[in-house]
């Protein structure tokens, strides 16, 4: 048995037997700046009651050096993941002294040396189960306790944790910081950060409440910290949630820290929220990027209640925090900040993630069956986040805002600092809404799959609204007319449907839009007349949310092979230059390139690729100077030019400073342009090295690695391949760079020779690497083969492979199968059309 992979059954048994009173964690980080030092001393003292004589503590590190149980030294029995505890009494004090390992994978205590100024930065990331890489603990969400952290660190460093510092002792070159005990929390949301971070202070006041606010960032990135805007959104969020939840913010302070080489968007550690530095632009940034950052700030803030105050008992009910936070991020953005169009981007982009995930053979209910930690790690997906949020949006439409929020208030009051399951929330919501929520739960939380809605005529000529699966939907249907150069809603009808076929009476309209206002979770199809209107007039649709639903409908139909990819790209070329909502535009541009690379037939791809590069180039020059659209199209040009070198001279000119008026070519865009040139063979190592000298930063070094690995040379791609699999010194970001370089430009001729080796390597990688890095390798290097035979053979031969590994391979197989299926359908359609002609 892999003892690092904790199961639901054994952790349930442990929590039934153990009740923790307090945990004290002492960390010695004084040696962190020494690069040769791989580990750090860590000591944990736990006080707990027990009804059993034996149990275990979780720890993954370099070594365990001492174990004391109730004052007596005990023989250390440690298998690399678990420390055996024996001879326990009814009340116990256990002390574990050990050596933890500094991380380069973003799991546990991550260490980063900034190449700009050679300063060292540390931060922790634990979800779902990596606090055991820093301290000995009971690694499960339903064992909560007050934590006291004591950290030794170099003098002059900021030292941070969930609570404020209670005692600071400064010595010669070192400091010891003891933090106040936390309120009862789970191990995975404890946090520590240390380093010479720049600090910006603020505060939030409401009535008698006063919360100190802090922002932290590496010093070399401090010029890009938009502290005023971030603090403004933070205050707006605290105002909103304080009023909406009627439960005062309980965690004392609200620090937010931007950290390097981060695996996630953000993490909700109470009192110390961590964010990826990707939310700090090193130059130009669109409003869509700022809106995404605000959404994430509010998402994490919602977790202070949904997840931190009240925590799911086990990872089956991960939705009790992530679905709610995803919903609240958009809702709070729309009503409490200047980003009022948050639901627009959600409709077209966020839900696309859910629709994709829900059509995979590995899809699962929102309330999932999570048997172990490996399964939990992979369940942070489009179902748990975006589908859950979309279903909650429909629930709010069903029961009303006030009932939903009153149910949440009662849920917090009843379960504060405790652990819950689905039933605990439904009880409160049923009580306040007066509705039995069990039927809704069965229909939406405990089933899988996404319904498709469309209109057709029955044998009598009547209009029928059809759904592929019988589910209850509350939705609206919009009827749009083309008037004076605008496409405007003339009428809207609200419907509740339950059956697969529902007769309806609809008025005539130029455009009939199912799921107008995007209330329900379903793919919608346009009838042919509406599709003609969209093809000709999409840019003239005034309502951005209506355009979001239309763009989503077009993309889903393309992915499903019902709308020709070339028709989709022609609509994008015609109407994306007129798309005024930048959040929508970014998603459409990404989808267009994906359609060209994956869904267009082999015979048409080169032509479509050239058309897309030229369309993006034209739109770049037609966009208003200095606009978000101009920047978005510049990025699209760079992305598309990695597959077609028709604009190679223009890209080089842009790098030399010849850019459209108003366009800011910041370091990140420069790297995109240069990587496109390198991928097509028009830039070499000397030019990449020159650019690195210009931008010798953490981001610059990662980008240079990607560009070097992208050069179209067989030996270069082979080197990237072997580095990815064998160089265990690569950080998470550098591993991604090698993978991206290996795959760059879609050059199967350079990489197809590694197909067989991929299947030989993945099982060993899964067993020998951390789950985060193994996941990146297995998904990132999956070969884009022309058939499914080899992957099917591996699956047939490896029924006993770890379930989480099989899930990743099955999902990648399904993506490949969709590519093959859609291309084949389009080739057949083209052949049929030619025969008819």
Distance between the termini: 64 Å
* Structural shape: globular
| Largest sheet: number of strands, sense, barrel closure | 8 strands, mixed
Strand order, sheet with most strands:
5-4-7-2-1-10-13-12
As a percent range, the share of strand residues is 15-25%
Number of helices: 27
Structural class, from helix and strand content? alpha+beta
Q: Give the overall pLDDT as a whole number.
A: 96
Q: Which blocks of ≥5 consecutive residues have pLDDT under 50? A: 833-837
Strands, total number? 28
- From the alpha-carbon coordinates, what is the Rg to the nearest angstrom? 27 Å
How helical, in percent, are the residues?
40-55%
In short:
The chain has an 8-stranded mixed sheet with strand order 5-4-7-2-1-10-13-12. It has a 5-stranded mixed sheet with strand order 15-16-17-19-18, covered by helices on one side. Strands 8-9-14-11 form a 4-stranded antiparallel sheet, with no helix packed on it. It has 837 residues and is an alpha+beta fold.
Report on the architecture of this protein.
By secondary structure, the protein is α+β, with helices and mostly antiparallel strands. The chain is 44% helix and 21% strand. It is built from 27 helices and 28 strands. It has an eight-stranded mixed beta sheet. A five-stranded mixed beta sheet has the order 15-16-17-19-18, covered by helices on one side. Strands 8-9-14-11 form a four-stranded antiparallel beta sheet, with no helix packed on it. A hairpin with a 6-residue loop joins strand 8 and strand 9. Helix 14 (582-598) runs antiparallel to helix 15 (602-622) and helix 15 runs antiparallel to helix 16. The longest helix has 34 residues, at 803-836. The model is unreliable at 833-837 (pLDDT under 50).
């Amino acid at each position: 048995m892999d003892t690092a992979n904790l199961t639901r059954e054994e952790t349930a048994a442990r929590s039934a037997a153990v009740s923790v009173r307090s945990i004290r964690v002492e960390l010695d980080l004084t040696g962190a700046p020494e690069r040769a030092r791989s580990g750090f001393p860590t000591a944990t003292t736990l006080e707990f009651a027990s009804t059993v004589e034996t149990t275990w503590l979780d720890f993954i590190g370099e070594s365990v050096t001492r174990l004391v149980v109730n004052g007596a030294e005990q023989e250390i029995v440690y298998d690399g993941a678990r420390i055996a505890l024996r001879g326990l009494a009814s009340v116990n004090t256990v002390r574990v002294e050990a050596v933890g390992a500094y991380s380069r994978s973003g799991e546990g205590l991550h260490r980063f040396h900034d190449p700009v100024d050679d300063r060292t930065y540390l931060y922790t990331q634990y979800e779902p189960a990596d606090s055991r890489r820093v301290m000995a603990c009971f690694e499960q969400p339903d064992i909560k306790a007050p934590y006291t952290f004591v950290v030794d660190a170099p003098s002059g460093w900021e030292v941070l944790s969930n609570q404020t510092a209670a005692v600071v002792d400064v010595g010669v070159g070192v400091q010891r910081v003891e933090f106040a005990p936390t309120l009862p929390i789970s191990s995975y949301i404890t946090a520590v950060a240390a380093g010479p971070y720049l600090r910006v202070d603020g505060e939030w006041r409401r009535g008698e409440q006063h919360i100190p606010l802090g922002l932290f960032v590496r010093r070399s990135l401090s010029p890009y910290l938009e502290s005023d805007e971030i603090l403004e959104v933070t205050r707006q969020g605290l105002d909103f949630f304080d009023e909406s939840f009627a439960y005062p913010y309980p965690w004392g302070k609200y620090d937010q820290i931007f950290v390097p080489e981060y695996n996630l968007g953000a993490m909700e550690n109470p009192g110390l929220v961590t964010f990826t530095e990707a939310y700090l632009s090193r130059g130009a940034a669109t409003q869509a990027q700022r809106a995404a950052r605000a959404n994430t700030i509010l998402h994490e803030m919602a977790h202070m209640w949904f997840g931190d105050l009240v925590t799911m008992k086990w990872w089956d009910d991960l939705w009790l925090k992530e679905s709610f936070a995803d919903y609240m991020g958009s809702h709070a953005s729309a009503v409490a900040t200047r980003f009022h169009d948050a639901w627009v981007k959600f409709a077209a982009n966020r839900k696309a993630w859910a629709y994709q995930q829900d059509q995979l053979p590995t899809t699962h209910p929102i309330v999932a069956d999570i048997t172990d930690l490996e399964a939990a790690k992979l369940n942070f997906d489009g179902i748990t986040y975006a589908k859950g949020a979309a279903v909650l949006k429909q629930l709010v439409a069903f029961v009303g805002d006030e009932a939903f929020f009153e149910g949440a208030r009662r849920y917090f009051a009843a379960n504060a600092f405790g652990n819950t399951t689905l039933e605990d929330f439904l009880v409160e919501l049923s009580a306040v809404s007066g509705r039995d929520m069990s039927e809704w739960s069965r229909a939406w939380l405990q089933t899988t799959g996404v319904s498709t809605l469309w209109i057709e005529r029955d044998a009598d000529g009547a209009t029928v609204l059809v759904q592929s699966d019988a589910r209850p939907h509350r939705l609206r249907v919009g009827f749009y007319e083309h008037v004076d150069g605008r496409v405007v809603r003339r009428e809207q009808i609200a419907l509740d449907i339950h059956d697969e076929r529902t007769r309806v009476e609809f008025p005539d309209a130029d455009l009939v839009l199912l799921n107008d206002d995007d209330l329900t979770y379903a793919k919608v199809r346009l009838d042919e007349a509406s599709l003609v209107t969209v093809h000709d007039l999409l840019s003239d649709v005034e309502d951005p949310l209506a355009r979001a639903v239309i763009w989503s409908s077009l993309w889903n139909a393309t992915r499903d092979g019902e709308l020709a990819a070339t028709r989709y790209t022609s609509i994008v070329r015609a109407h994306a230059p007129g798309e005024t909502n930048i959040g929508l535009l970014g998603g459409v541009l990404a989808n267009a390139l994906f359609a060209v690379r994956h869904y267009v037939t082999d015979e048409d791809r080169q032509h479509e690729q050239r058309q897309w590069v030229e369309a993006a180039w034209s739109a770049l020059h037609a966009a208003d100077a200095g606009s978000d659209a101009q920047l978005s199209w510049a990025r699209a040009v760079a992305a598309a030019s990695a597959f077609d070198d028709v604009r190679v001279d223009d890209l080089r000119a842009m790098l030399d400073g010849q850019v459209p008026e108003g366009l800011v070519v910041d370091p990140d865009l420069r790297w995109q342009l240069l990587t496109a040139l390198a991928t097509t063979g028009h830039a070499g190592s000397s030019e990449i090295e020159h650019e690195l000298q210009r931008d010798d930063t953490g981001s610059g070094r990662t980008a240079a690695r990607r560009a070097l690995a992208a050069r179209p040379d067989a030996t270069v791609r082979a080197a990237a391949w072997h580095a990815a699999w064998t160089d265990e010194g690569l950080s998470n970001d550098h591993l991604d760079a090698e993978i991206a370089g290996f795959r760059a430009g879609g050059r199967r001729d350079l990489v197809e020779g590694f197909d067989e080796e991929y299947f030989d390597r993945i099982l060993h990688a899964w067993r020998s690497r951390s789950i985060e890095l193994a996941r990146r390798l297995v998904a990132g290097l999956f070969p884009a083969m022309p058939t499914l035979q080899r992957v099917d053979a591996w699956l047939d031969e490896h029924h006993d492979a770890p379930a989480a590994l099989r899930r990743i391979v099955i999902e990648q197989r399904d993506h490949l199968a969709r590519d093959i299926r859609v291309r084949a359908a389009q080739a057949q359609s083209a052949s049929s059309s030619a025969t008819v002609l």
